[in-house]
Amino acid sequence: MADISLTSVEKHFDGIPALHAISADIQDGEFIALLGPSGCGKSTLLRLLAGFEMPTAGTIRIGSTEMANAQTGRSVAPEARNIGFVFQSYALWPHMTVRRNVCYPLEVRGLPKAELIRQTDAALQATGLQQLAGRMPSELSGGQRQRVALARCLVSDPDAVLLDEPLANLDVALRASMQEVFTDFHSRTGATMVYVTHDQTEAMAMADRIAVMSEGRIVQFDTPETLYTQPRSRFVADFVGEGTVLPIHDVRHAGTQSQAQLYGAQITIQTDAQRPNLICLRPENIRITETGNLRSEVKRSTYLGGRYRLTLQLPNGMPLIAESQQRYAAGTQLGVSIDAPWAFAEA
Ligand code: ATP
């Protein structure tokens, strides 16, 4: 297994930048998600790591090997990078059984037969495929095919595994169970994994850290918890988790406590910025109380199972998302108090 280091990596297509000055370090054995909307550059970054594309500027190192250097023109071929790739389309050989699909990389390497059988059996077992080893890919479900792709990765003993939206073709229920297969695969192998997705719940459920991307840049690279509780931009606050971004004024710091004005109400905020101007209100920052210093009207109440999601509206028309054990009818006037939300500075 290996760590990965990207230094000032850029990629242009016909002079148009798809990635700008990407610098990031991924630890050996980390599970990283590249998360962002369509067109933000996730797949391009993955393809650069795999060696399918050459960077326009910058360097890429995997383990102790410099894989690409735009200045010297060095580029290690994809097959020489010892990297596993799992695609959305599974990329299985249709004319080979599950077992043959899995052991094929070992055949190509010319491994002795006994060793080949041992490693193939271990990979089939690790992915729960022993019973299906004799089937053809056409006789498998989407989730089972994806397991074959993982098992094939596993036998190759790669330094890193790159996954490009591997669950995009599966239905919602299967996606959830396949997430466990991926996290299990990660903990068994200790592989460094880079997983591309535009689905924030998928990224939050699996990754140790998430690189949130927008317009060819990594805008924040943090643990799921930090991205949720301490977003550093409106983009991340909106893209990761549910919440509302609102402007604050008259920020005052006194010791470890910071206060600000929100629509005329004094609130306590959490921040590490000198002059924060926005807060990210998560549902858990909003309490419904008789004495709440902001008034709001219930616009909609949705049952989530055990609790309700309330869409509230402040007198100035701004929406708020809160959660409550109790159902409130649309039109009910409620007091809300704001509980120490995260505040950040954005121009
Ligand atoms: P999606 O989630 O839709 O797959 P993405 O975040 O993976 O999107 P990329 O596929 O990396 O985005 O594309 C980033 C940008 O680079 C886009 O504007 C895309 O049009 C452009 N791009 C990607 N590959 C090429 C190419 N081979 N030639 C020209 N432009 C490209």
TrEMBL record:
GO cellular component annotations of the record: ATP-binding cassette (ABC) transporter complex
E.C. number: 3.6.3.19
PROSITE patterns (alphabetical): ABC_TRANSPORTER_1 (PS00211), ABC_TRANSPORTER_2 (PS50893)
A UniProt-annotated Pfam family: ABC_tran
InterPro entries, per the entry: AAA+_ATPase (IPR003593), ABC_SmlMolc_Importer (IPR050093), ABC_transporter-like_ATP-bd (IPR003439), ABC_transporter-like_CS (IPR017871), Mo/tungstate-bd_C_term_dom (IPR008995), P-loop_NTPase (IPR027417), Transp-assoc_OB_typ2 (IPR013611)
Residue ranges annotated for the ABC transporter domain, each copy included: 4-240
GO molecular function: ABC-type transporter activity; ATP binding; ATP hydrolysis activity
Keywords for this protein: ATP-binding, Hydrolase, Nucleotide-binding, Transport
SMART domains from the UniProt entry: AAA
UniProt keyword annotation of Nucleotide-binding present: yes
Family designation: Belongs to the ABC transporter superfamily.
Protein name, per record: Maltose/maltodextrin import ATP-binding protein MalK
